[in-house]
Amino acid sequence: MDSSQPADRTVNVSALKALTHPLRIQLLNALSQFGPQTASVLAARLGESSGSTSYHLRQLAKHELVRELEGKGSARERWWERPPGALSLYSSEIAHDPGTRDVAAIVNREFSHNRAALLEDYMERGPHVLPDEWLEASVISTLNARLTVEQLAELSDELMRVSRELFEKYRPGANDNPDAKAVQIHLNTFPIIQGQFPEPPARKEKTP
């Protein structure tokens, strides 16, 4: 990775558990999508009270998942931002512990639900509310391939490298064009499980 690009972060178990509250994931998403905001602005955007968003922002800050924006705001009205860099919810520590693995699955499912909701909203309302040029500039595409695990890893690494290079100049906060809007880019590479991978044997319950 280029040293000028922000490093990705693999969350520890404590930070992972802090993300199990759905509102905290919504707060992370809103800061990622729309840039730095106050608790009041986030409350209005998410339909919550400012007291609730303020509390959950402070909890996220304890795990360095968000941070106060230096030089902006006041003691009464703090501005919050997402630290640069992507979050990874899986590590060997998490993957090999059934309890934390299940927690990671819950958090990933909430992130996935939020992504799917945005895409569904675009598919349903986009043709009615978006100008033609925005519709024509958008892409919804699915590609299928047959790959070995090594080829999948190579493809994933290359796609991430290219997307990071292209995305750098459009990173939230870097584009001050008044015509710019919040845009979300989805990139997924994964094996299709159904019909190809057997279910693992059920875990045996320990008896006292």
TrEMBL record:
InterPro entries: ArsR-like_HTH (IPR011991), HTH_ArsR_DNA-bd_dom (IPR001845), WH-like_DNA-bd_sf (IPR036388), WH_DNA-bd_sf (IPR036390). The keyword Isomerase does not apply. It holds the Pfam family HTH_20. CDD domains: HTH_ARSR (cd00090). The keyword Zinc-finger does not apply. It comes from the Bacteria. Keywords: DNA-binding. Residues 14-108 form the HTH arsR-type domain. One of its GO terms (molecular function) is DNA-binding transcription factor activity. SUPFAM superfamilies: Winged helix' DNA-binding domain (SSF46785). This is DNA-binding transcriptional ArsR family regulator. It comes from Arthrobacter pigmenti. The lineage of its organism: Bacteria, Bacillati, Actinomycetota, Actinomycetes, Micrococcales.
